[in-house]
Write a structure and sequence with these properties.
Order of helices and strands of chain C: EEEHEEEHHHEHEHEEHHEEEEEEEEHEE
CATH class of the largest domain in chain B: Mainly Alpha
Structural class of chain B: mainly alpha
Shape of chain C: elongated
Bound molecules: adenosine-5'-diphosphate, magnesium ion
Helix content of chain B: over 70%
Number of strands of chain B: 2
Shape of chain B: globular
Largest sheet of chain B: 2 strands, antiparallel
Chains: A mainly alpha (264), B mainly alpha (293), C alpha+beta (362)
CATH architecture of the largest domain in chain B: Orthogonal Bundle
CATH topology of the largest domain in chain B: MetI-like fold
Number of helices of chain B: 14
Radius of gyration of chain C: 25 Å
Oligomer: heterotrimer
Number of strands of chain C: 20
Number of helices of chain C: 9
Order of helices and strands of chain B: HHEEHHHHHHHHHHHH
Strand order of the largest sheet of chain C: 6-7-8-3-9-10
Distance between the termini of chain C: 36 Å
Strand content of chain B: under 5%
Distance between the termini of chain B: 72 Å
Chain lengths: 264, 293, 362
């Protein structure tokens, strides 16, 4: 297009502004977690670690961190398994009710979380499994499996379609071909879907809040603190949460982008 | 003899192969029916249950529906939720467009890849903490007002306003909308855009007459996603919008958290689902409608 | 009698309504180098995949050494395939790729490694054993793929257009590697290709397929000198196909009358056709002769020269007959230099009676 320098600078400036808007809350949350003032504003007060100390010494936070970790690791495992099975079925087979089958797995994220939360709460109560860590894990797996499915399916579509047949041809049964060829080929996608589903689960608060009962996760603790008053503890916990989920997301993306060099 | 062995071999091979196949199908179908379709169906059923002596009993009565749909505050909430999500969607789409335009048409491939890499990150980081951060930033004595006071301006009231809610919505939706818009625009055949410029079409006219129609499908899908996310969000209107009057999601939270009136919350949820279904359907129809002329 | 290594009995393969392979019958003996040749989409790969058990026949039977294989799953057959895409496992290195089949057969790690390295050495790529597949050249990948298939010591090797991705020089080199390998190992090669030169250069026997059918099976020479039908004659190329109606016919010869004249042709093995039927015969371009004077005896067609094409010392002349049909002659350049075609208004294309090959009506 025409070489219009002022326009170009204007657009890049605008882009920078939009990115500032998107990352400002993350940035300020981290800055204020080290700020001594009770009500965070500028000019900043002095540097302090007291909010981190408060959080560190809070047994409830530790308990919640444990719960969160359990939930997100279990969720990531189940969701990745579900996602892999669906992706593989979609890749390999065609059958009449496939759209229904795929819809069953892919639709949950299109339903608002608050609705899923209510539905899960009522359904788990009906089944008699409400208020347990397991209920959160189940709900999160349903919610995050589509992400895993999408990532792994994309990877499978990059595979030479003869690769699996080649394994059979060399004497691998369906199961060994799956283990020796499909899984190793999809490994980057499996790792990154594990990280992403763990990240989503780690941050999810609506469903957790509804179905968790007494087993609070970190986001539920945050929600409760925030509902009470302004407490810079939230910034400390929040920075920790950001750190965890950003690490997971970045690992996920890097693993997907760099081709795996060698299989041991 | 060899006939017989070959048939048993055949049937055992066939059986193994269908065991293999079903291992990937049945567990998924059972799991998702039990924990995705099950809850949603039960919720619809629950909207017809009745609460007696603070206990929910399975029943089939229209009472909850009549009660909820007969109340003005429900309809006020409904209109408010529509309005907020609608404004949020329009604002987000407009704010995102120049950014997506820059990424799609002006930026190099490497910059675009990096930008998208960055835009994915917030999508997977705690929305709740980001909203709380906005709360602090937008407060009357918060960062923005403190900054403005140096210039002798303000303070402006930004919390507990529709502005606050929309900022919250954008926190949730802006990265996703930029990504979707960028993909929609990047798929356009550039030579057509250049042709329009060469024919003397002025930039805004080119955007309006050439780019928008060609990217229509992707743009509508971005808008539909944006609307669905905003419509279902309870955090922004609650913490940044002041929750009074409540939006539909806040209504659900309040109804559930303040007692046993789950069936009424279910009514709200079903109304929301139907609304979103209609919006999504209309959006898809509009997105894939054949262009006339 | 010993059963043939491979036998296809009335094999049909349908994909939904589409018939990819239609009633195919053939046998392959142990130690043969057989090429399956035909235009793209004619069912070559499907035939090969049925042999490997990767596709189940819709009808008919595939036998190996007399045993019906239809229900034997792919992984229980020893029918390794060299894939068109090579299908090397990208997450394994060269040696690990070669070890794959042995690992599936439960061979212990040390033994596996030894045999894999032995084969890589034999394929002259031992130094690349620990290299990533992605870092190998086309020819090296080809050799890894061959080693991977041969290390399990099969009695038959299937190859599906394995050289189609290589450049021309490499193709010639790999052809000689393959023929040498086949001779040394003494195992059966079934080689699918759409390239006539590959098939004719390497195979003992060629199966020509057309739209799911077998058009002809025979040695390269049979197919070249005695095409069974018009499809083969055209597919093999450089043939003049002359059409007419049957005039006088005896048990041994037939007269065919057409727009180019009336010609007498040996019937060969064919039955005596009925008078008035359509019939065709073929005169191979390299068996035809030309002259500037009308030959006194034998069959001749008057033509004019259209163009010449030189490939090495061989010249192909493209001629036009009086009725507009195009004919070809191939001859050595030095023969051509003896003649002064440019001056001649008419060139006569002629052939000895026993060099025309009758192909009947189809
Ligand atoms: N899995 C399949 N499903 C449907 N059609 C197929 C399938 N495999 C092959 N075909 C069709 O069968 C025909 C023969 O294919 P193939 O054997 O691959 O031909 P080629 O001779 O080129 O190797 C082609 O027309 C192809 O489209
Ligand atoms: Mg093929």
């Amino acid at each position: 297009m025409s070489d219009n320098r002022p326009l170009r600078w204007f657009l890049y400036g605008y882009l920078a502004l939009v990115f500032t808007f998107i990352f400002a809350p993350i940035l300020f949350s981290v800055i204020f977690s080290f700020n001594s003032d009770r009500f965070p504003t500028i000019p900043l007060g002095s540097f302090t670690l007291k909010w981190y100390q408060t959080v560190w010494n809070d047994p409830d936070v530790w308990e919640a961190a444990r719960t969160s970790l359990t939930v997100s690791l279990s969720t990531a495992t189940i969701a990745t398994l579900l996602g892999f099975a669906t992706a593989y079925t979609d890749y390999r087979y065609s059958f009449r009710l496939k759209p229904v089958y795929l819809g069953l797995v892919l639709l949950p994220p299109t339903i608002p979380l608050i609705i899923m939360a209510l539905a899960m709460l009522a359904w788990f109560a009906k089944l008699g499994i409400s208020g347990q860590v397991m209920s959160i894990i189940i709900a999160h797996s349903v919610l995050t499996a589509p992400f895993a499915m999408a990532i792994i399916r994309l990877r499978l579509s990059q595979m030479d379609p003869s690769l699996e047949s080649a394994a059979w041809n060399l004497g691998a049964s369906q199961w060994s071909a799956l283990r020796r060829v499909i899984v190793p080929f999809c490994l980057p996608a499996i790792i990154s879907s594990f990280c992403l589903t763990a990240a989503v689960s780690f941050d999810e608060f609506a469903i957790s809040w509804f179905v968790s009962g007494l087993n609070k996760t970190i986001p539920v603790i945050i929600l409760e603190i925030v509902t009470g008053n302004i407490d810079p503890q939230v910034n400390a916990i929040g920075s920790f949460v950001f750190l965890v989920s950003m690490t997971l997301v970045i690992i996920a993306q890097v693993v997907l982008m760099t081709r795996r060099k060698k299989e041991v | 003899m060899s006939e017989a062995t070959s048939t048993t071999a055949a049937s055992s091979a066939a059986r193994q192969s269908s065991v293999f196949k079903l291992t990937f199908r049945l567990p998924i179908i059972i799991w998702q029916s039990l924990f995705f379709i099950g809850p949603l169906c039960f919720m619809v059923a629950m909207s017809f249950f009745i609460v007696r002596n603070y206990r929910m009993q399975e029943d089939f009565v229209m009472k909850n529906w009549l009660k909820m749909l007969g109340r003005d505050y429900f309809w006020d909430s409904y209109v408010l939720t529509w309005g907020l999500a609608g404004i949020g969607t329009v604002v987000t789409m407009l704010v995102a467009f120049p950014a997506a335009y820059t990424l799609a048409f002006k930026a190099s491939e490497a910059v675009r890849r990096w930008a998208i890499f960055m835009l994915i990150i917030p999508f997977f980081t705690s929305y709740l903490v980001r909203i709380f951060s906005w709360y602090v930033i937008l407060a009357e004595s918060g960062v923005i007002n403190a900054g403005l006071s140096y210039l002798g301006l303000g303070p402006f009231v930004m919390l507990n306003t529709k502005f606050g809610t929309v900022v919250g919505y954008m926190t949730l939706t802006l990265p996703l909308v930029i990504i979707l818009q960028t993909f929609a625009l990047a798929n356009i055949d550039r030579s057509l855009v250049e042709a329009a410029f060469n024919l003397g079409c002025r930039p805004f006219r080119t955007i309006y007459r050439v780019i928008l129609p060609m990217a229509r499908t992707g743009l509508i899908i971005a808008a539909v996603f944006c609307f669905i996310l905003s419509f279902g969000d309870f955090v922004s209107p609650y913490y940044l919008g002041g929750s009074k009057p409540p939006t539909l999601p806040i209504l659900i939270v309040d109804t559930v958290k303040s007692g046993q009136q789950w069936p009424r919350a279910a009514v709200v949820a079903v109304v929301m689902m139907v609304t979103l279904f209609v919006v999504a359907f209309a959006g898809i129809m509009a997105a894939y409608r054949r262009r006339v002329g | 009698m010993v059963a043939p290594l491979v036998e296809f009995r009335s094999v049909v393969k349908r994909f939904d309504d589409f018939v990819a392979v239609e009633r195919v019958n053939f046998t392959i003996e142990a130690g043969e180098f057989v090429a399956i040749m035909g235009p793209s989409g004619c069912g070559k790969t499907t035939t090969l995949r049925m042999l490997a058990g990767l596709e189940a026949p819709s009808e008919g039977e595939v036998l190996m050494e007399g045993r019906v294989m239809n229900d034997v799953p792919a992984h229980e057959r020893d029918t390794p395939l060299v894939w068109q895409s090579l299908a090397l496992f990208p997450f394994l290195n060269a040696r690990e790729n070669v070890e794959f089949g042995l690992q599936m057969r439960g061979v212990a790690a040390a033994e596996r490694r030894r045999r894999a390295l032995e084969w890589l050495d034999r394929m002259e790529i031992a130094e690349f054993a620990e290299r990533d597949i992605a870092s190998l050249s086309g020819g090296q990948k080809q050799r890894v793929a061959l080693a991977r298939s041969l290390v399990i010591e099969p009695r038959i090797l299937l190859l599906d257009e394995p050289l189609s991705a290589l450049d021309a020089n490499l193709v010639i080199r790999m052809q000689s590697v393959l023929t040498k390998l086949q001779r040394e190992l003494g195992i059966t090669f079934v080689y699918v290709t759409h390239s006539q030169s590959e098939a004719f250069a390497m195979a003992d026997r060629v199966v020509i397929m057309s739209r799911g059918h077998i058009a002809q099976i025979g040695s390269p020479k049979d197919i070249y000198r005695a095409p069974a039908n018009r499809f083969v004659a055209e597919f093999v190329g450089r043939n003049n196909i002359i059409t007419g109606t049957v005039g006088k016919a005896t048990a041994k010869t037939v007269t065919i009358d057409g727009s180019l004249g009336s010609f007498t042709v040996d019937l060969g093995q064919h039955e005596k056709p009925r008078q008035g039927d359509t019939a065709r015969f073929v005169v191979a371009a390299d068996l035809a002769q030309i002259s500037t004077a009308k030959p006194r005896r034998g069959n001749a067609i008057a033509c004019s020269l259209i163009s010449e094409e030189f490939i090495g010392s061989v010249v192909t002349l493209f001629l036009e007959a009086e009725d507009g049909s195009e004919l070809k002659v191939q001859l050595q350049e030095r023969e051509l230099s003896k003649m002064d075609l440019k001056q001649a208004a008419t060139i006569y294309l002629s052939w000895a009676a026993d060099q025309a090959h009758y192909i009947g009506a189809d």
